Amino acid sequence: MLVLTASVIIEVCLGLILAWPTILTERVTSAHLDFSVQLRWIHALTLVAFAFSTVAAGKLHDRIDPGLCVRAGGLALGVGLAAAGLTGKISVMWLGFAGIVAGSGAGFAYLVPVVLAVRLFPSEKGLASGLVAAGFLSGVVIWSRTAAYLVDVHLLSWSAVHILLGLTVSVCCLAGSFFVTYSGSDPRDEEWHALSDNFTRPQYMPGGIENILASYTFYAIFFVFFVSAFSGHIASGIIQPYGIESLRARGLENKIAMSVSALAALLFQLAGVVGPLAWGMISDRMDRRWVIAALCGIQGVVLLLMAYTVGSPQSVILFACLTGFNYGGNLGLFPAVTAENFDDRGLTWVYSLIFLAFIAAGVAGPETTDYFFGEAGTGEASLGKMPLVILAATCLGVSALALFFKGR
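User: That's the sequence. What structure does it adopt?
Assistant: Structure tokens below.
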């Protein structure tokens, strides 16, 4: 239990990388600057660095001390964000500190708690990975609210907040890294590492890129993960602008519309924290294929209904809660289903590749949202209805694809 607790704490710290765009946006907004394009590219660069380091680390995690991965990643994340706070220049942050250094650090450490949770609790993979994922997503709420609190209440400068948060996550990751280890989590590890040291790859470890890319299951899981995560990113991006315009068109006052939409955005984040736990527990008691199919199907139905029924405060909030709940569930379900379709001793390498689907959705989501919903504010409540319908239909389609995964 101590190992799992340390894993959750580490993931909460790594969640700062998801909160970073929110914190940076608040910083430039408070300075009355317009860097919307630069901020999107900083966010995209951070996710790309996160992706590359995750894949690179996927090949190293099982050959070196996992605690070392966490220490190196946590230190890079903290130093990158602290250095970005010191520069105060968007261009410098974009070129290196917040994007490449911090993103690479978070990606390098991310897989350790996820894989460790699945290995320690083989009969409850969904709940274990869901708990770790909940920690990662809760970091968005915790760190963004903490940053705003330090600036608004304690009147700290944004540079001081960046430095303080960077040092905090570095220290916490360093402390937690001494409790995360694969030792004893799988009685076959000794055989596995012995074979790895002799450069011999056993049949049960699908770590060869040629074996993975030749597997239909790999592409099916990747595509379903991408579509489901992409729909969540779209929902997250349109909650406030689309909700505000819809409520205005139905006659609500601007102040009420903005308050309801802001509450919906917060509830989306909170529902995302609960989602991995709930979906993970359900998947441990049912065939995980059907659970993933249900998640994608529900997401598709919700998007389809909300494309035509958004207009009341209740419907906007319901839309936020359900889509956030399903969005978070992805991070709890897909590590477990990957371990079931590929032997969990190769989970680190295989999931690092499948996790690229989540990263790709994170990059494409904001750009797609801006393209289809960027004109929010024109007063046209029907704006963006057709893209939502298409996305809903795609979610319903991949729900059927999920049934072709390997079941228990």
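The chain has 17 helices and no strands.
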